[in-house]
């Protein structure tokens, strides 16, 4: 082996090692900020009782969390690019933990909205957009898998906290629970963020064959003028609505279905279902990301979105069976969580890596719109019809429509775009 070949192979080994290390740190940061969204449903009943308000009013908090997390994500992505990944992700983790500390002392809806919704949303948004943007840069050859892995950290992080938080709520109450877990999660994320760093420059990365890019880098101002971006935005919005309806309303419709007072395998059905959901919601992200790396983004989208629609239909039809309620809730999340690996990888495949963080920030705003429809609008629809069937019908319809759009429309539009904007070899 000559010296030049040896140096190239050594660089490849170091790059793979560095990438794996950064991926692990990214997963830890995402796990630290996942609980505000994914265990929110456990706090809705205590909050409505404490504040003496309706479920729809309390659910505005959840929408604020997602709206602030997503609507400001372009700015958050720009700040990450401008001031560095370590500093901004550290601030985001600290704000996420602080939101629970402040919410533990909330005595009015406005205080709850400001603390849990606004502070928490800004903090989690900085971390989420920053970490996803970082990983699609570190892994241009395996974007689906890498984005899915860190998104899995966000989806599965609450798996570790669901039962402890549920037990803590029963034993010490909501205020102490929020204070304790807010401090712990904030500190973990802040410490982990100090080990993040950006990948090598594009020039040094080009020396590795798997690191080369095939499409031109498109800045946000031009991305926002393309039909393919807005199609992805509409699809992301519909899928977010479907999944966030389940995430934010699960404790409420579980109560109406009689699932909050039953046991499954010796455990309370609702926290067991939430824990299984976290596992499936996490596993689906790298799984479908890996599949999309090999079999195509749109093909994978069509299958996964249709899969969720079918699973949600079966879940609704068997909602009176405790065992099936628990198991099918996990299947539903298995068909939903992959949007957080498929959409960022598809976007970066289409518009390049240079502006990946900011571009994804704009696309991620669709999650905020989905939170409005999946949170308070879904609660109001249930309130006006006194039934969860219309709510589920809308969510299932969105799943099927998005699956059809992925296969029959997005696939063609994106192929045409890439053909026109590929880099010359």
Notes on the structure:
Mean pLDDT is 87; it is low at 1-13 and 203-211. The chain has helices at 3-32, 35-38, 40-51, 55-71, 73-83, 85-103, 109-138, 143-171, 174-193, 202-205, 220-223, 227-256, 269-295, 297-317, 322-334, 339-351, 356-385, 389-421, and strands at residues 263-264, 267-268. 82% of the residues lie in helices and 1% in strands. The chain has a single domain (15-201, 209-421), classed as MFS general substrate transporter like domains (Growth Hormone, Chain: A, Up-down Bundle), CATH 1.20.1250.20. A hairpin with a 2-residue loop joins β1 (263-264) and β2. α13 (269-295) runs antiparallel to α14. By secondary structure, the chain is mainly alpha-helical.
Task: Compose a concise summary of this entry.
The chain is mostly helical and about 425 residues long.
């Amino acid at each position: 082996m000559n010296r030049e070949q040896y140096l190239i192979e050594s660089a490849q080994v170091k790059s793979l090692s560095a990438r794996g290390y950064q991926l692990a740190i990214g997963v830890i940061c995402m796990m630290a900020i996942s609980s505000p969204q994914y265990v929110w449903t456990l706090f809705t009943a205590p909050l409505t009782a404490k504040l003496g308000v309706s479920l729809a009013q309390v659910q505005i908090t959840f929408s604020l969390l997602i709206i602030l997390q997503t609507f400001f994500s372009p700015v958050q992505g720009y700040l990450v690019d401008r001031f560095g990944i370590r500093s901004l992700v550290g601030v985001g983790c600290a704000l996420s933990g602080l939101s629970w500390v402040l919410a533990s002392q909330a005595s009015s809806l406005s205080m709850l909205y400001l603390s849990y919704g606004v502070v928490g949303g800004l903090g989690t948004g900085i971390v989420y957009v920053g970490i996803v943007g970082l990983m699609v840069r570190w892994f241009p050859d395996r974007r689906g898998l890498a984005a899915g892995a860190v998104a899995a950290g966000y989806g599965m992080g609450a798996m570790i906290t669901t039962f402890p938080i549920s037990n803590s709520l029963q034993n010490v109450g909501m205020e102490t629970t929020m204070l304790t877990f807010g401090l712990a999660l904030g500190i973990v994320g802040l410490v982990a963020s100090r080990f993040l760093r950006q990948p090598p420059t594009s020039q040094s990365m080009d020396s590795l064959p798997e690191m080369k890019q095939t499409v031109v880098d498109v800045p946000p101002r031009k991305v926002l003028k393309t039909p393919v971006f807005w199609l992805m935005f509409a699809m992301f919005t519909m899928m977010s609505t479907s999944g966030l309806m389940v995430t934010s309303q699960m404790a409420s419709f579980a109560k109406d279905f009689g699932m909050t007072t039953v046991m499954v395998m010796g455990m309370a059905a609702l926290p067991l279902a939430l824990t299984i959901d976290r596992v499936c919601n996490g596993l689906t992200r790298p799984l479908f990301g890996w599949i999309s790396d090999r079999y195509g983004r749109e093909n994978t989208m069509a299958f996964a979105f249709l899969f969720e629609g079918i699973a949600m239909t079966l879940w609704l039809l068997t909602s009176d069976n405790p065992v099936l309620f628990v198991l099918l809730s996990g299947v539903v999340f298995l068909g939903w969580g992959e949007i957080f690996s498929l959409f960022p990888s598809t976007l970066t495949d289409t518009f390049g890596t240079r502006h990946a963080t900011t571009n994804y920030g704009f696309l991620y705003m669709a999650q905020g719109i989905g939170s409005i429809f999946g949170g308070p609008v879904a609660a109001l629809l249930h309130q006006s019809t006194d039934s969860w069937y219309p709510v589920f019908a809308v969510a299932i319809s969105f799943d099927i429509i998005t699956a059809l759009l992925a296969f029959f429309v997005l696939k063609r539009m994106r192929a045409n775009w890439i053909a026109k904007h590929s880099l010359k070899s």
